[in-house]
Design brief:
Alpha-D-Glucose-1,6-Bisphosphate, Chain A, domain 4; 7 strands; Polyketide_cyclase/dehydratase; seven-stranded antiparallel beta sheet; 153 residues; 23% helix; 40% strand; Cyclase/dehydrase
């Protein structure tokens, strides 16, 4: 997109779990609400009609907010990327999870959120405010994922 501004927010956490256990949670795309705090409901919209992961779409409900997320990158055990619809008008948002196995059964998980806008009035203050909001959400998702995969209550 011409004259588009891009902001990225990355958060990482080393989780005391094998990457296969973490990947199993992330790749079960429709079950986000089973492990992510703040997600009231999640379900696949096209799971039966879509044999490949790329293009798979889920709907999530968080309070009064509804989002539709579509997988755009899928590298088993390593990368899950998806675009997020339902964000404020004028923004385009995507998330990308990267898994990097570490020694002793640990995994570094990085969640990168990319925020794009082409509206001059929304830059740069709108981008920064939205990036801070997404960073808090990323921290919460990483905490939830760690709790779900490390076996903590």
């Amino acid at each position: 997109m011409l004259n588009e501004a891009v902001a990225e927010v990355s958060r990482s956490r080393t989780v005391s779990a094998e990457s296969a256990a973490i990947w199993a949670r992330l790749a079960d795309f429709g079950s986000l609400s089973a492990w992510a705090d703040g997600i009231d409901h999640s379900c696949l919209l096209n799971g039966d009609d879509h044999p490949e992961p790329v293009g798979l779409t889920r709907r999530i409900q968080s309070g009064r907010d509804t989002f539709v997320e579509t997988i755009v990158a899928f590298e088993p055990s390593r990368v899950l990327g998806y675009e997020i619809a339902g964000v404020p008008k004028g923004f385009r948002v995507s998330n990308r999870w990267n898994l990097e196995p570490r020694a002793h059964g640990a995994t570094t998980v990085t969640l990168t959120t990319t925020i794009r806008t082409s509206r001059a009035l929304l830059r740069p203050l709108g981008e920064r405010a939205f990036a801070r909001l997404m960073a808090r959400r990323s921290d919460s998702l990483l905490d939830s994922l760690a709790k779900a995969t490390e076996g903590n209550p």
